[in-house]
């Protein structure tokens, strides 16, 4: 189609009975561009901060396999994507100027021929969500590392590099790297690995026995001496890794030391004891547990939050292993699972098992209000399922 | 796959959104490509005026609280199916401003020419 001329524009204005004197001199003649009807363009509504990130040159990534709902990831955040319908038509126009821009540039063209690049009745909406990190542990648990003397056939292993994880996990890079640190993953020959629990305990045991025989204070364990004494038993990287996992690294007078983390060590030893049976007599367990931890460490039940659950209703009281990381990631499924394990929960007992579900500014209380029903039992407030348990 | 910049190191283009009520359909059968939509004017007070066919639409300039990014799918149409968009997208432009035309269009009554 031929481009409109000034004469044609003026004629239209006259027919429409609009006074040119009341209008800015510039006019945009809008037509549909060659690709306009193709549907290749779509709109993404940006949450605060994302626009600035794009302008700064950062990328946004859409992640998700065919069977997963797609998420959008910035450098450090994850968002659910949802289609929003409007009843209106949205046309996107490159090179279209606003009145401010036209007024700021008096020499601007009299006729601006603008091509509409595309149009849509809907757009993608974003909602910040928790990164979907359960899959990370699941992938790394496919092949836990159990030491250099592993009997496993190395050709049958499934191992993941950082790039592999970035393409498979629905979370931002920062969230993934942070989670790798939280679960004490380490890089072995370029692949991220989780240690097999038995191997991890073996390494920890080497270190705690050495601390004991050398009478080192738990707050000042020297890295060099550990590597020297234990280097013949295990790879040096593994010795350092276990110290990093179970201690806090610091430098004193140019030497590297570790302050051992009492809570984490006690917790690991508890797991080691609890995983051997369905449940234990609580007082027997507490006795054995205290005897099993390194000299100078004190065991406390609150070290086991999210790892084990005490049954105060049984006589005698018992304790059993229940790891929060083994429970479903989805909110409703998590609550169903918890209420399947125990019909009524106190807030104190259930909190460690739902804490990780809280969204950015959400409280445990808000979650309980939404997914549970409260009642009183023997003067204590308890929560049970909103739906009948089958 | 990342949403990459189409322009490489250059700044992202700024486009404008036009929001209209109703449908956009080609006048003749066939595609919209190349066909005219209308003339967009602004009054001296900055009010957008759109002349489409025999209608005048008055609108307003709105600064978007949440800007849009325009995504272009590489190689094919983005399918907004239940699982979401999959594939490689490029961020072509940002939209921070929209021209919202919500008032009912005023029909233009063509002046009947006087007989000579």
TrEMBL record, chain A:
Keywords: DNA replication. It comes from Vireo altiloquus. Belongs to the DCC1 family. The gene is Dscc1. GO terms for cellular component: chromatin; chromosome, centromeric region; Ctf18 RFC-like complex. Pfam families: Dcc1 (PF09724). InterPro entries: Dcc1. This is Sister chromatid cohesion protein DCC1. GO terms for biological process: DNA replication; maintenance of mitotic sister chromatid cohesion.
TrEMBL record, chain B:
Keywords: Cell cycle, DNA replication, DNA-binding, Nucleus. GO terms for molecular function: DNA binding. Belongs to the CTF8 family. Its main location: nucleus. This is CTF8 protein. It comes from the Eukaryota. One of its GO terms (cellular component) is Ctf18 RFC-like complex. GO terms for biological process: DNA replication; mitotic sister chromatid cohesion. It is found in: Nucleus.
